[in-house]
Design brief:
The structure holds 2 protein chains of 2 kinds.
Chain A (H helix, E strand, L loop, with lengths): L1 H18 L2 H26 L4 H22 L2 H10 L1 H6 L5 H29 L6 H29 L2 H18 L11 H7 L3 H13 L6 H26 L4
Helix pairs in contact in A: 1-6, 2-3, 2-6, 3-6, 3-7, 3-10, 4-7, 6-7, 6-11, 7-8, 7-10, 7-11, 10-11
Chain B lengths: L1 E14 L2 E15 L4 E5 L6 H8 L7 E6 L2 E2 L4 H7 E4 L11 H11 L4 H14 L15 H12 L6 E5 L7 H16 L3 E6 L2 H7 L2 E6 L2 E6 L1 H7 L3 E8 L2 H9 L4 E6 L4 E6 L2 H14 L3 E8 L3 H9 L7
Parallel strand pairs in B: 3-8, 3-9, 6-7, 7-8
Antiparallel strand pairs in B: 1-2, 1-4, 4-5, 9-10, 11-13, 11-14, 12-13
Helix pairs in contact in B: 3-4
Classes of the chains: A mainly alpha, B alpha/beta.
């Protein structure tokens, strides 16, 4: 009860501060729309898809997963600014739940990601994507898990390194292989065998496969439950670890 | 109200390749009574902030124990948090929120309900003369206004003890006087106030009791008057035209000089038993040795003199 209340309190505050920055809305929507408009036309021939709808069914879930990963991974910068301002220390002298300090923030990130995802889905629908609403909601759940995980990781790492200068290269180093090996932009079915072998070890490639199956309307596909479970497990670990970092002494 | 025993903390920090341990706090024993303004005086790096951060549950002590308002620091930090307030040296407000938002949020983090939190925020804004700026973003505040918000935040939940880390650093003299009044008002309400400061006059005027800290240890403790009384006699400040070192050689041998320090190129600090009686003798001795005086001053020992005799350094210099 106290925990839920605390989480809601932190979430409200963070959400309010976010919507006060209209720049965020602009950047958050502009980027994916560019991908959709400028990149997608190349897809149909490249993927040898039979229709625009099919091309979008492959591309859009990948794009959404990409946004979830990146949107989350770079949240740590905001936290470093809060650390510097003394806001985190001020929170830590109160009896507020440490898990709530993390979750309130991460849930804000999840909500803003889902808002982005809805806008992109609507646009893609206008361009000819078709998807079942039930499958779509399940895909959003998957995205929410990813965003929760990556933002929690980012917050945890921010608390450990405590400086933007260290966080930026670290996040890029994590993001790059994750991106290249997850088959996000193009499916790995084109990749040589050894590359696919490595990709199997990339948890996000499971997530992408799951999301693609959902957008394809293939709810019974093993990739769906596998993707969801892999993400759920890693998210739990990431959240537990990051909440501990909030509880530990930081300066 | 506060009782600590053997509180210790050392930090491991990297210096180039080698790791070095800094003993920031080495065994602090303190007793602070309820309703007292207790001052922590010491130069940069003495370990004041580290001690406060330990007492405020922000860092775990390496050793020792503490009891705050009846709650044990080690076994029950959650209860300690409920009973204390803490105002950090570096501030605690977020640029993009308003003072009112910060106060309401902070009250709510202590589990206070929404309506009650709003009322408390309103009262705090009034008490700290912030009503006028309450709904402006914190980034638009002056340093003094911002500091007042910090302190209002620290006491929004009516703690039994409040820790204020350098509450007046960076304030102009008028704001500083205001802040002293605020702090005295907290005491009048029965709160125990624990402040740190670099200012001797502040410690002297504001604090009921003080502890002088140096290199992680408490070197003296008592009321300002007690501490000054420990240094018997008076202080004579002499500035000569020429080298203070040479003048020191002359005065060292005078029997009535109990202690002597050179404070800079040409300044001397003499501790004597009775300034009024000994000053003429000092003048005579210097005159005989051929030193021309540029000034001579007599005063009662200050806290700086206490610091000087306890640590061998002046607080002003360090
Ligand atoms: N997180 C840390 N890591 C490493 N060393 C630290 C850390 N925090 C403090 N120290 C060191 O511990 C010592 C005591 O620092 P502290 O901040 O307690 O001093 P202070 O008395 O508050 O000084 P000031 O008057 O400058 O605020 C200093 O030498 C400082 O460099
Ligand atoms: Mg300090």
């Amino acid at each position: 009860m106290k925990f839920a209340r605390d989480t809601w309190l932190i979430f409200q505050r963070q959400f309010l501060l976010l919507v006060r920055q209209p720049v965020w809305l602009f950047v958050g929507i502009f980027q994916p729309v560019m991908y959709l408009l400028l990149f997608a036309p190349l897809l149909k021939p490249a993927l040898q898809a039979s229709s625009n709808a099919e091309a979008y069914r492959i591309f859009v879930p990948g794009l959404l997963v990409l946004l979830a990963i990146f949107g989350g991974l770079f949240q740590g910068f905001g936290l470093i600014a809060e650390l510097r301002a003394g806001v985190i220390e001020r929170s830590r002298v109160t009896p507020v739940s440490r898990l709530a300090l993390l979750l309130g923030r991460s849930l804000r990130d999840v909500v803003s990601l889902i808002a982005q995802a809805i806008i992109i889905t609507l646009l893609a629908l206008a361009f000819g994507l078709t998807v079942f609403i039930g499958d779509l909601l399940l895909a959003y759940l998957l995205l929410a898990l990813i965003a929760l995980m990556t933002s929690a990781l980012s917050y945890g790492i921010a608390l450990v390194v405590k400086s933007e200068d260290a966080l930026a290269p670290l996040m890029n180093t994590i993001a790059q292989p994750v991106l290249l090996l997850s088959g996000i932009l193009l499916p790995l079915s084109f990749a040589p065998g050894w590359l696919q072998g490595i990709a199997d070890w990339n948890p996000f490639s499971w997530a992408v496969d799951g999301a693609r199956a959902l957008f394809a309307g293939d709810l019974g596909n093993d990739a769906v439950w596998q993707g969801l479970s892999v993400m759920a497990v890693i998210t739990t670990l990431a959240v537990t670890w990051a909440a501990r970092e909030f509880a530990r002494s930081v300066r | 109200m506060i009782e600590t025993k053997g509180l210790r903390k050392s930090f491991r920090s990297r210096q180039g390749r080698s790791k070095k341990a800094v003993d920031a706090v080495r065994g602090v024993d303190l007793v602070v009574a309820q309703g007292e303004i207790f001052g922590f005086l010491g130069p940069n790096g003495a370990g004041k902030t580290t001690t406060l951060r330990m007492l405020a549950t922000l860092i775990e002590p390496d050793g020792g124990e503490a009891n705050l308002a009846g709650a044990d620091l080690r076994t029950n930090p959650g209860e300690v948090r409920r009973r204390i307030g803490y105002v950090a040296q570096g501030g605690s407000t977020w640029d993009e929120s308003t003072a009112r938002e910060e106060l309401v949020l902070h009250a709510r983090m202590y589990g206070i309900g929404k309506a009650e939190a709003r009322q408390r925020a309103e009262r705090a804004l009034e008490a700290f003369q912030l009503t006028e700026y309450a709904d402006r973003k914190c980034k638009t505040y002056s340093g003094g206004q911002r500091r007042r918000v910090d302190i209002a935040l620290g006491i929004i939940h009516d703690p039994k003890i409040v820790f204020l880390d350098e509450p007046t650093t960076g304030l102009d003299p008028q704001s500083r006087a205001h802040m002293w009044d605020e702090i005295r008002r907290l005491r009048a309400e029965g709160m125990t106030v624990f402040i740190t400061t670099h200012y001797l006059d502040e410690a002297d005027a504001l604090c009921d009791r003080i502890a002088i800290m140096d290199h992680g240890e408490i070197v003296a403790e008592g009321t300002p008057a007690e501490l000054k009384r420990e240094i018997s006699g008076d202080v004579v400040l002499v500035t000569v035209e020429g080298s203070a070192q040479d003048a020191a050689k002359v005065l060292e041998t005078e029997p009535y000089v109990t202690r002597l320090e050179t404070s800079d190129e040409s300044g001397l600090r003499l501790y004597v038993n009775d300034g009024a009686r000994d000053m003429p003798q000092i003048l005579r001795a210097l005159d005989t040795a051929g030193f021309a005086l540029s000034s001579i001053e007599l005063h009662r020992p200050s806290l700086d003199d206490v610091f000087l005799t306890k640590t061998g350094r002046s607080l002003r210099e360090s």
